[in-house]
Amino acid sequence: MHYHFWFMRLARLVTFILGLFFCAAVSLAATDERYDSHITLVGEDEWYPYAALKDGRLKGYAVDLIDAAYAAVNVKVHFKSAPYARCLMLVETGQELGCFDSLKDRKLSKTFLFHEEPIFKAEIGIYALASSTENQLDFSALHGKRIGVTHGYTYTDEVDNDSGIKREVAPTDLSNLRKLLRQRSDYSLVYTRVVDYLTNQYASEFKGNIKQVGSISLQALYVSFSKQRKDSLRYAALLDQGLRKIKKNGTYQQIEQKWRNPAP
């Protein structure tokens, strides 16, 4: 009787667990039926608040916008993460469909396919030590100077084609700013919202020690699609369609508001 009792309890437990798995599978199948297709895109792993790997998954302003835009046209996006230079390489070779976030400049347009509607716009700031007396600089001030840049990034055609700029290349924006503190560069080029986030995260290093002294102006950012993939044209067009939809129905503005002051 003792063995029979425990056998019955084990059988009920197994039945319960199998039931949970069945319900989950049905739920997942029902969710998948909402979408006409599924794609995978690669986002940068360390570019918060736009895209970064946090708690085991890709999060950020750009991630939410792309996800919502594709959902509006019945496309489900699975996100991967990688350092930006690798992200571009994976797409250039056709291993992945698209990489974000990219400038639609002459250099990248030769290699990648772009959609028309920007995901968002952001400002590239020119940063110097807090002791600097300079202000309101533009790209022309960079000529002949040591400029901190991040590996794989492009910074507009004017900056990228200026052979007089001495580039101090860093693996990440964080390293870029740290090189500025050590005076290994005269200026650092970093997007302003990224600097705001890093300054809060590493307050003891950066607060009161660096400041923005100029700008490379507001830039439009996109997904760079692979020219090696036959479906790139389709999904570039669908992204444009989705972005227009969420701008019209207010979803875009809601996401914009959510990320206006991102939590650490």
Structure description:
The protein has helices spanning 2-32, 61-71, 84-92, 106-109, 157-160, 173-181, 192-201, 203-206, 232-249, 251-258, and strands at 37-44, 46-47, 51-54, 57-59, 75-82, 98-103, 112-114, 120-129, 146-150, 166-170, 187-191, 210-226. A hairpin with a 3-residue loop joins strand 2 and strand 3. Helix 2 packs across helix 9 (232-249) and helix 2 (61-71) runs antiparallel to helix 10 (251-258). It folds into two domains: 35-119 and 221-258, D-Maltodextrin-Binding Protein, domain 2 (3-Layer(aba) Sandwich), CATH 3.40.190; 122-219, D-Maltodextrin-Binding Protein, domain 2 (3-Layer(aba) Sandwich). With 264 residues, the protein is α/β, with parallel strands linked by helices. Residues 26-31 have low confidence and may be disordered. 41% of the residues lie in helices and 29% in strands. The protein is globular, with a radius of gyration of 23 Å. The strands form two sheets. Strands 1, 5, 6, 7, 8, 9, 10, 11 and 12 form a nine-stranded mixed beta sheet that branches. It contains ten helices and twelve strands. This is Transporter substrate-binding domain-containing protein. Residues 40-260 form the Solute-binding protein family 3/N-terminal domain. Keywords: Signal.
